[in-house]
Amino acid sequence: MDQHGPLCVGIDPHVSLLHDWGLTDDAAGLRGFALTVLDAVAGRVAAVKPQAAFFERHGAAGLAVLEEVIAAGRQTGTLVIVDAKRGDIGSTMGAYADAFLRDGSPLAGDALTVSPYLGFGSLSPAVQAAQAAGRGLFVLALTSNPEGPAVQHARDEQGIAVADRIAREAAALNGAEIAASGARLGSVGLVVGATIGDAARRLGVDLPAVRGPLLAPGVGAQGAGAAELAAVFGEARADVLASSSRGVLTAGPDIADLRRAAALASAEAQRALR
Prior knowledge:
- This protein is α/β, with parallel strands linked by helices.
- The chain has 13 helices and eight strands.
- It has helices at about 15-20, 25-40, 50-55, 60-75, 90-100, 125-135, 150, 160-180, 200-205, 205-210, 225-235, 245-250, 255-270; strands at about 5-10, 45-50, 80-85, 110-115, 135-140, 190, 215, 240-245.
- Strands 1-2-3-4-5-6-7-8 form an eight-stranded parallel beta barrel, surrounded by six helices.
- Helix 5 (about 90-100) links the parallel strand 3 and strand 4 (about 110-115).
């Protein structure tokens, strides 16, 4: 983020985007789409974020493309966040962690999105695997979908909101890591929608105290500018990694056009996060 700016480009091969790019809705079209995006932005943005579901819908052939994209991203040095939102318990969560976080796994990027809604403790296998491999996690905390508040804003018997509890757990993990390493940020980030308004403040969620990267869908062309980001993130704005998918992807398939769109999105994010 310090070197390339606070932008993460999503690699989301929707059927409509494949069609708009003149590509077929199969593994070959998927591969052409994903590798073109990577060619356009690798080395120019902080991270890319392939959405696993769009690859999984093509079965084994689609997963093979996802593996290729992750490997190609690794070769360019661009960070790869695998957006799989995995969440389960016990040995099943351990198996997900092994698949997406273990050294040598073809599905292991630099970070993984995870869901804590079976209890934050259910993520322990992923936390342990990420720590062992030097990878990161982005934990769903305050999302912008209309159904999210029913769970994320709910309060326990102590009056603590679910999202606040998640942020506190992440902060504790990051605090221990930072104390040991001296890094500015820890490796457990949160997913916080850029269009959630004052929800963090109303729920008492101390985002600066998390001391981890905050992956923020919805910045710039998707609706959130400087005023909205100030309301959402406050003093944590320097920790925000803005995520843009369609705002960049609709500029394709020409690589030069994609690069211009990514540069514009990065500049918009930088201005909004000052």
